[in-house]
Amino acid sequence: MDLGLKGRSAIVCGASRGLGRACAESLAREGVNLVMAARRPDVLELAAKEIRARTGAAIKTVPVDVTTPEGRKVLLTILPDPDILVTNAGGPPPGDFRDWDRAAWIKALDANMLTPIELIKATVDAMIERKFGRIVNITSAAVKAPIDVLGLSNGARAGLTGFVAGLARQVARHNVTINNLLPGPFDTDRLRATMEGQAKAQGVTLDESMARRRDANPAGRFGDPAEFGDACAYFCSAQAGYITGQNLVIDGGAFPGTL
Ligand code: NAD
């Protein structure tokens, strides 16, 4: 299916690795001109080089921390009026809520709630004027099924989800959609990092702990980031204009509810 995105422009945040990178690659394959942002210039440039080689897409890289006002300013100077915005940043660390002070909460809220909101604020009005806009926020399956040790993530992302639910209905009539993609366990660096703590707690090796989690998933495996990227591209497609304000869990069926 042609997603009708040829010649569109996109900002993809957290695009050097993992799920953000996969979103960038799927959009590039559809002929979208990309601005990829992530913190480490070397890793980011390498990712862009590989995606250019595979897709022939026009890609600019912007090595910034998107959770800072300075970083967002640089990013938006390079592309102030994207047709597509994919928000993403690293998730907060796991831990016990008794150890989190105000600074820890502000950091989590900044990264996983306020940064997406600031980026949406900076780009949504131009999308409304052009009568086309697609915004996808990478959040987490923890929004639907909170994970106890990820309280900072549960809280910050729930805030973003509530905000988006309200805004999505205000902009829908202008062919601007805002949706959230909620990853379950995907095989990325982040998954390995978060599972190291779990393996220690279980008293097993990382590989063993990962094998247990893989087996426990209804699909019997972790998600492939490319599957996530393609879901993102579909949400950004011309055909998806009637899908908005949604929270799509992509987790191999791990979330056991019907809604
Ligand atoms: P990852 O660590 O593999 O990749 C994160 C990417 O974001 C990297 O390119 C990194 O450089 C970039 N990044 C991080 N902080 C940034 C910042 N402040 N500014 C700019 N770029 C930044 O992580 P991932 O697995 O791709 O996860 C992406 C998001 O999805 C995270 O918020 C994570 O918590 C969430 N998530 C992931 C999983 C999973 O299983 N992988 C599950 C649930 C939620």
TrEMBL record:
Positions in coiled-coil regions: none
Source species, domain of life: Bacteria
Gene3D superfamilies: NAD(P)-binding Rossmann-like Domain
Entries under PANTHER family matching the protein: 3-OXOACYL-(ACYL-CARRIER-PROTEIN) REDUCTASE (PTHR42879), NADPH-DEPENDENT REDUCTASE BACG (PTHR42879:SF6)
Family named by the database record: Belongs to the short-chain dehydrogenases/reductases (SDR) family.
Protein name, per record: Dehydrogenase with different specificities
